Amino acid sequence: MIDNTRIFDLEQPRTAEMPIHPAHQQAGYSYLLHRHHEDEYRPEEAGPRTGAAGVIICGEHTGTHIDALCHQSDALVLYGGVPVEDVQSSRGFTQRGVEEIPPIVAPGVLLDVAAKEGVDSLEPGHVVTAEDLEACCEEQGVGIEPGDVVLVRTGNGRHWGNAERYLAGPGMDAGASYWVADRGVVAVGADNAGWDVPGLKDPELGCMLPGHLILLARRGIYIIENLNLEELAAAGRHRFDFVCTPLKFVGATGSPVRPLAIVRDETTAGA
Description:
Blueprint: E1 5-9, E2 29-35, H1 43-46, E3 53-58, E4 65-67, E5 77-78, E6 82-83, H2 84-87, E7 88-89, E8 92-93, E9 104-112, H3 113-116, E10 127-128, H4 130-140, E11 149-153, H5 163-167, E12 171-172, H6 174-181, E13 187-190, E14 201-202, E15 207-208, H7 210-218, E16 222-225, H8 230-234, E17 239-244, E18 254-256, E19 260-264
Parallel strand pairs: 9-11, 10-12, 11-13, 13-16
Antiparallel strand pairs: 1-19, 2-3, 4-16, 4-18, 5-6, 7-8, 9-17, 14-15, 17-19
Helix pairs in contact: 4-6, 6-7
């Protein structure tokens, strides 16, 4: 609590054992402490101070992260009509890379689908539809406005410590992605590994992960994955200020992030 304002940390902890989407498991995550304090401990020469430092090895799409627009294409064309072949190389992308994402400071909305269903977490493979998101808005008394960031809680974040269960979790169908896109949102996010329902092929679009095609490649809407929404949901907060600042990895298809939900606590205002 800072000046009657509560700050909710929406990032999941990063460890070597954390769940990683099958498409990105080869990248993995590892932290290596390459310089130990004992390495330079020479009190008679340099005094008592020592330092330690390490190396981080991880894929862009591990842990809590944001997808850049170059992450997905529509028939080899990126959002805005940019042909992949014109901007792609082994060193990354010259357009639509993650460094082009501005710091996101926007109104945020939490749609708690698990609470709507009266469960702690939705079952693996559960399909969240546009009707579900609409019902959440009605039950929670919130609306989606252009420029908002919409976060969907399925309760899957409760299983972050169980990779197999987490990766088999629920997700959104194409209709849910169209629903948020049609409302002019800046970004979406969820407490699962890939926004979309794992392994579900959309019959009309003919592909899996239809939300990635709809949101990133066709509508230019960012996707934030592996969010921790439990504390925010437990506090009953559905409207807040949302902050998310991607790292400027030039040419990259994504970036680790530590998103925040900032809520003014009216119950203590003026106390």
